[in-house]
Structure formats: structure tokens, C-alpha cells
Amino acid sequence: MSAAPPGAVEGLAEYRPELRPEVLLSDAMLHGAATVHLIKDTASGGSFRVGPKEHFLIARMDGRRSLAEIGEEYAREYGRRLDAARWQQILRMLGTRGLLAGAPAPPATAPGPGARTGDGPGARTGDGPGAGAFGGDGRPARGVLRGSVRLVADADATTDRLHRAVGFLLAPGLLLPLLALVLAMEVVVALRTGELLIQTRELFTNPVLLTGAATLLWFSTALHELAHGVVARHYGGTVAEIGLRWRLPVVIMYCTVDNYLYLGSRWQRIQTALAGAVMNLLFLLPFCALWLFAPLDAATHHALGALLLLGSVQALAMLVPLPPLDGYRIASQLCGATELAASTGAYLRLAARRDPAAGDYPRHARTAYRAYALSAALALVGILAAAVAATHHLLTV
After folding, report:
1. DSSP 315-379
2. What is the mean pLDDT of the chain?
3. Predicted structure pTM score
4. Which of 17, 128, 142, 218 meets the CB 3.0–4.6 Å disulfide criterion with 147?
5. Rounded-to-integer distance, Cα 177 and Cα 173, Å
6. Which helix (H) or strand (E) covers residue 31, if one does?
């Protein structure tokens, strides 16, 4: 079936438009004062956003409904009918982007995070800063001081194999007891933080054990990234790349979930974002058991205590609701927003100036942006307070 030719909409009442299988549609999301839906062509990598009315029409282009039937549904929902010019505009936009079955697909592109693509009706955007990429931007650039390189040729197939091997751990009957153990471990860490701080200070005086602990923490970050991919795969996600990114002297692993914002539900997206930190904490469980119960020499015991504290801080730091951390992605999903930080900043600037435009934001948008600003501020205050308390404790013992 070919895309509808522009100018012939009046005679195409029975035309049944169908989106290509590679086209993904997101849930409704806040973007500033507006509610938008993201549309992505996974074949080309391009994405853009449309309003609820455009999404209402596009989501019904399944090859079964005719334009006349879609128009009737639209009229019942919004109380007005689309004229030929508006239909022509929508079909031209979809056809020129290659989103309709039978239309030529546009050439594949590799826009960076947040890149603007396309020129159809409505605002244009990528998926937001770093959206869908956990631990890196996913671009295989190379350089001496900074860059990235792919580690596997087919990241999605690799993730699928990992999911088949360990996906059983995501069953509630296994996952819930593991999470209970993690919670118990973090209670122990909280109650014995003072002791663990001293042991961490001592670890930094032992280069051999410090190197071992650093290596384990780096390995934990690798598992963190793979956990994002495995959980996304569990919910039907696609992993585009697995690789290494370096910003010398730091070298970290990354895993790019290509369709993170298009997973089936908000809860699935939150679980995918949360998976990395949970993996970091699960990684610490055997070391916590050794620290608590094994008969070890003092140096090893102290090194394990330091690993336990540093690993817990590493995991919990990823949940801070600031970009580009996992906590920011979770906050974005809880608020139902794309580009949450930028939208919050824009709203707060308007509100601070008592600009009438701030009143144009719908109530749920104002609530979401205020809640995010408060949570980010509290997180920063908490981090500062924890750092001051830790420093004071180390200086007074």
C-alpha cells in the first residue's frame, strides 16, 4: 500500500493508512505547558513529537481503519471534523518521513541525544537528553582523551542471551526475597556507617586492597549497565549498543536501550531505569555476608567494609533525580514528562517573575514541576549534609 498522494485526500475516504512496524508511539508526556507524544522511526533513528490530537489520528492508522472511520472517531472525540487540508498535511508529514507502509523509508541517521529531526507539523525533538542511553551516548566515536567504542556487533542478540540466562531472577518469587536482603543490608550500612567510614579511610592507605576494591566497583558498574539492558529486553525493549566510553582517566561501560521511552508502561520504564542501582546492591550481598560473618584478617575485613560503603554510595548516587542519572529518568516517568529539568527550569523562571505565562501551565504540569524541583533540592541538601557529617566523623575519631 503506498502513501496517500498529496492533493487527493477528498477521494480517499476508503484509504486505510498503516504505520510501518518500525514506528513507535509513546504515552502522553508533559513538555513545558503542553502534552505531547513522541514518535520514533527505529529504522532511521529519527524522532519527533506531536500533540494529542495528531497522536489520536496516527495511533489509529493500523491498516484496518479507513480515513473515513478515523475521521468519525475523531469527530466523536473532539466534536469537529477534519477538513481535507488538515488530512493532507498529516498524510504528507507521515509520507515524507517514510512512516507509512509502502512509503520509501528515509535514510538512517544517527542524531545525538536531543537532536532535532524532521520538518513536519508540531514541535520537533529527539527523545530528550540521553533518553534511552544508560551510561553513555551510544555513539561509537573514538579519540585519545574521550570517545566510545562498541564491544559487541549485535548488542540486542547479546542482551537476549543474557536475558535467557538470568531472566528467571526477575520472577517475583525470587526477586522479592533478594530485594528484602538488599533492604536488610542497607539497614546494616546505615546503622554502622561510622565504623564503615573508618574502614574506608584505612582502605585508602593500602594500595593493593584499594586497587582490588576499585576493580570490583568498576565491574559493578558494568553489571549495572547490563542490568538496564536485560530488564528492558524483559519488557520487549531493544538494546542498540553495548560498549566502552572513556573520558580519561575514567573508562566506563554503557548500554543503549533504543526504545526506552516506548516500553509498554510507565512502571516498566521505571523498573528499567531502577535496574542498574538494584544490580549494584545485589552485587554487594555476598561481600556483606563475608564482612558480617566470615573469620577474616583485619585488613581484609576493613576492605570489605569499605567496599560495602562505597558500593552502597555508588548505587544510591545513581538514584539522585538529576540528569543524566537513573534517578532523573525515574523522576521523569513519575512526573510523566520529557525534558523534565529544562521544563522545570523554564516554569520556575516564569513563576519567579510572576509572569502570567506561568498561569497558562495546566495544574498537573505545575504540580509535577514543583514536585521535581523540591525533590532535586532535597536530594542536594541531603548529599551536602551527608558529606558534612561524614567529614566531621572522620575528623573527630
Report:
1. HHHTTSSSTTSHHHHHHHHHHTBSSHHHHHHHHHHHHHTT-GGGGGS-HHHHHHHHHHHHHHHHH
2. 88
3. 0.87
4. 142
5. 7
6. strand 29-31
Q: Classify residue 296 by its DSSP letter.
A: -
Question: Which alpha helices (H) appear in 145-192, and where do they start and end?
Answer: 155-166, 172-191
What's the CA gap between 307 and 224, in Å, rounded? Answer: 16
Q: Which residue has the cell 546494616?
A: 188
DSSP structure string for 107-155:
PP--PPTT-----SSS----SSTTTTEESS-------SSEEEEES-S-H
What are 237-295's pLDDT values in tens digits? 999 999 999 888 889 999 999 899 999 899 999 999 999 999 999 999 999 999 999 99
Q: Are strands 23-25 and 29-31 parallel, antiparallel or unpaired?
A: unpaired
Alpha carbons 357 and 364: distance in angstroms, whole number: 15
Output the pLDDT for position 219.
96
Residue with cell 541525544: 113
Cα–Cα dist 28/139, whole Å: 28
The Cα 121–Cα 153 span in angstroms is: 36
Beta-carbon neighbour count of residue 19 at 10 Å? 20
Q: Does residue 313 contact residue 341 with C-beta atoms inside 8 Å?
A: no
